[in-house]
Amino acid sequence: MTTPSPAPDPYAPSPLALRAFAAFGLLLVAACTVAAMAVTLDDAISGDGSGGGFVTAGFWAVGLAAVTGVAALVVPRRALVTAQYALALAGPLLALMD
């Protein structure tokens, strides 16, 4: 006796839609990278002249968002796209905390 497979979620986004969100997320990653750079340069000019741990964490978050975005393009999963957006937006926020 075989168990029936569960029905697919009719409200789940299609793989094409997830790939489109991931591609737009890569544009967001580029914008967040520029924003993190601007925050870092402003801190370097007006602050103590050196970046702290939060600046480093911000750039790591943006870099990981780019890697996650490429992974979301290859394997479209909702969790990957959500992580991409969260990491991209966390980058400049972490740089602002320094």
Structure write-up:
The chain has 98 residues and is an all-alpha fold. The chain has one domain (15-97). The protein has helices spanning 15-46, 53-74, 78-97. Helix 1 (15-46) runs parallel beside helix 3 (78-97). The chain is elongated, with a radius of gyration of 18 Å. The model has no long low-confidence stretch (mean pLDDT 92). Keywords: Membrane, Transmembrane, Transmembrane helix. The chain crosses the membrane at residues 20-41, 53-73.
What does the secondary structure layout of this molecule look like, with pairings?
Layout lengths: L14 H32 L6 H22 L3 H20 L1
Helix pairs in contact: 1-2, 1-3, 2-3
Keywords: Membrane, Transmembrane, Transmembrane helix
Shape: elongated
Helix count equals 3
Sheet of most strands? none
Q: Measured on Cα atoms, how large is the radius of gyration?
A: 18 Å
Q: How many structural domains are formed by the residues?
A: 1
Through-space gap between termini: 61 Å
Q: How would you state the average pLDDT, rounded? A: 92
Total beta-strand segments: 0
Can you write the helix and strand succession as a string? HHH
- The portion of residues assigned to helices is over 70%
Transmembrane segments: 20-41, 53-73
Keywords: Membrane, Transmembrane, Transmembrane helix
